[in-house]
Amino acid sequence: MMGDRVKTLMVTGAGGHLGRRVVEILLAGGQGKVIAGSRDPSKLTALAELGAEIRKVDFDDPDLAGTFAGVDRLLIVSTDEIAVPGRRLAQHKAAVDAAVKAGVGHVVYTSMPNPEPGSPIPFAPDHFGTEQALAASGLGWTVLRDSWYAENLLLSLPHVLATGQWFTSAGDGRVAHVTRDDCARAAAAALAAGERGNARYDVTGPEALTTTEIAAIASDVFGRPITVVQVTDEQLAEGMVASGVPAFLAPILVSFDTNTRVGRADLVGDGVKTLTGEDPTSLRDYLTANKAAFLKAV
Fold it and tell me: Does domain 8-147+179-204+267-280 have CATH number 2.102.10.10?
C-alpha cells in the first residue's frame, strides 16, 4: 500500500475509446491523481476539463521514461500499430523498459484471450511478447485478457441485418463478447487497486455463443430474420475484399473467425466480476440498449 500519499495513476492511449473511458471512471471515483496520455494531446481536452493531467505519450519517444516520471501505477493500452509486423511489440517493450527506468510500481496491460504460440491471430505474438516482457521486468503487473468487444459487431452486424445473411467461417466455435465499458471498469479497478503482486484475468462477457446463437439473439432484438451461411476462410476473405475491405486487413478479420472455430475464444472468465464486483453485461442486453445505433447503421 502507498500509505497516505496520493497515488498517481496514468493511462496511455487516453485518446481512444477504452483509455478515455478508463480515465473518466477513475476521475469519477476520486482515485487519486490521474494522468491521461496520448500521442495527440489535443484529443484530451475534455479529460483535462474533468481534472486529468495531460501528457504527450509516444512509445517511439527515446525519452519515454521521462514521460512516466512520478507515476505509481500505469495502464498500457495496446497500440493500434498492427499493419507492420513486430512494430507494436517493439513499442510495448519500449513502454515496459521505460516504466522500469521511471520507477513505476505496477503496470496493467490490455492483452487478448489465449495469445500463446499457436494462435491464428496475426497480432497475438504482440500480446504474448508483451506479457513475457512484463514477467521479466521485475515490475508488479496485471494482465487483462480482454475478449472481443461487443462494439465490434457495429462494424458487421448492420450489413447482416440489411441483407439477412451472415457469412462466417467460425463454424460451431464460441466467443464471449464483452462490452468496452466492462473492460474499462475492469481496467480502472485494476489500476486503482493497491496490490503489488502479479495477476492475470480473463475479461469476458457472461456466456460464450456460437454465431448461430448470436444471430438468433440479434434477430429477436431487431425483429429481422438472419440466415447464417458457413463458408471457408478463403471464401470469407474473398468476399471481404470484394466488398471493399483492404487486402492487408481481410486476413486479420478472417483470423478472428478462425480463432473462434478452433476454440481459442470460447472461455468465460470472471475478470469483470472479480475486479469490479459486478456481473458483465450480456450480449442481448448490449444489443437491446444500443438498438438505435445498430439500426441507424443499417
Answer: no
What are the per-10-residue average pLDDT scores of the chain (298 residues)?
A: 69 98 96 94 97 97 97 96 90 98 97 97 97 97 98 96 98 98 98 87 98 98 98 97 93 97 97 97 98 94
CA-closest candidate to residue 105, choices 25, 3, 22, 207: 3
C-alpha span between 192 and 9 (Å, rounded): 7
Indicate the pTM of the whole model.
0.95
Backbone angles phi, psi at 33, to 5 degrees: -80, 130
Integer Cα distance of 273 and 205 in angstroms? 10
Q: How far apart are CA 212 and CA 215, in angstroms?
A: 5
Task: Parse the chain into domains and list their residue ranges.
Answer: 8-147+179-204+267-280, 148-178+205-266+281-298
Sequence-ordered list of residues with C-beta below 8 angstroms from that of 296, at least 6 positions apart, any chain: none
Q: Which amino acid would we find at residue 215?
A: A
Which residues are registered as beta bridge partners of 136?
none
CA distance 164 to 155: 15
Grid cell in block for residue 65: 521514461
Q: Which of 20, 16, 3, 5 is nearest to 188 (CA)?
A: 20
Indicate the CATH number for domain 148-178+205-266+281-298.
Answer: 3.90.25.10
Judge whether 147 and 203 are in contact, CB under 8 Å: yes
